[in-house]
Design goal:
Helix content: over 70%
CATH superfamily of the largest domain: Tetratricopeptide repeat domain
CATH architecture of the largest domain: Alpha Horseshoe
Oligomer: single chain
Radius of gyration: 20 Å
Distance between the termini: 80 Å
Shape: elongated
Strand content: under 5%
CATH topology of the largest domain: Serine Threonine Protein Phosphatase 5, Tetratricopeptide repeat
C-alpha cells in the first residue's frame, strides 16, 4: 500500500514576508510576490504581506490589483499612512479613485506625527492632479518647511521629489484657467 505524505509549510507567514523582502532586495520580484501570496494563505490578516504585494503590483502597473491590496491593508490597519500614501499613488497613476484616495490620505495625515514630507508630497501631487492647485501649493510649502526644520525623514531624494513635483504643479497652474473660472 502506498504511503501518503502530507507536506506542511514549515515557515510562518512572517517568515514568508521576510523571504519576500529578501527576494525583492535581490530584484527577484515574482519570487517575492509568490512569498507574499503564500504568507496571505497562511495568515490572511498579514498587513505586511498585503502591503508589500500591493507595492509589487503598483510597480507592475497593475493599478486595480494594487488598489485592492492597499484597501485590504487599510481594513487591517485603518489610517495607516504608508498604505494610504501608496493607495494615493495608485489613484494618481491610474487616474481612478482619486477622491477616495484623498479622503484616506487626509485622514491618515490628520495625526500631526504622520505628516512626513514624503506623505505630504504625495498629497500635494494628488491635489494637483485633481486641479486643486492652491491647496497643493500649501501642502508643498508645509513639506518644504518640515524639510527645512531638519525632519529626519526628509532625505535628499525626498527633497528633490518635492521640488520636482512643485515645479510640475507650477506648469500645471499656468495651463489651467484661473481657479473659480470654468
Amino acid at each position: 500500500m502506498p504511503k501518503i505524505i502530507v507536506l506542511n509549510d514549515p515557515l510562518s507567514a512572517d517568515e514568508r514576508v521576510a523571504l519576500g523582502v529578501s527576494y525583492e532586495r535581490k530584484g527577484e520580484i515574482e519570487l517575492a510576490a509568490r512569498e507574499y501570496a503564500r504568507a496571505l494563505k497562511k495568515d490572511p490578516s498579514s498587513f505586511h504581506a498585503r502591503f508589500n504585494l500591493g507595492n509589487i503590483r503598483l510597480g507592475q502597473k497593475q493599478y486595480d490589483v494594487a488598489k485592492e491590496l492597499y484597501l485590504e491593508a487599510l481594513e487591517l490597519r485603518p489610517g495607516d499612512p504608508r498604505a494610504a500614501n501608496n493607495l494615493a499613488w495608485a489613484a494618481i497613476l491610474s487616474g481612478v479613485g482619486m477622491e477616495s484616495a484623498l479622503y484616506r490620505l487626509e485622514s491618515a495625515l490628520s495625526d500631526p506625527s504622520q505628516r512626513l514630507p514624503s506623505f505630504l508630497d504625495t498629497l500635494g501631487v494628488l491635489l494637483g492632479e485633481m486641479s486643486r492647485v492652491s491647496e497643493a501649493e500649501k501642502i508643498f510649502d508645509e513639506a518644504l518647511a518640515r524639510c527645512e526644520a531638519a525632519d529626519p525623514s526628509c532625505t535628499e531624494t525626498v527633497l528633490a521629489e518635492i521640488h520636482e513635483h512643485r515645479k510640475a504643479l507650477g506648469l500645471r497652474r499656468r495651463a489651467l484657467p484661473a481657479e473659480g473660472n470654468p
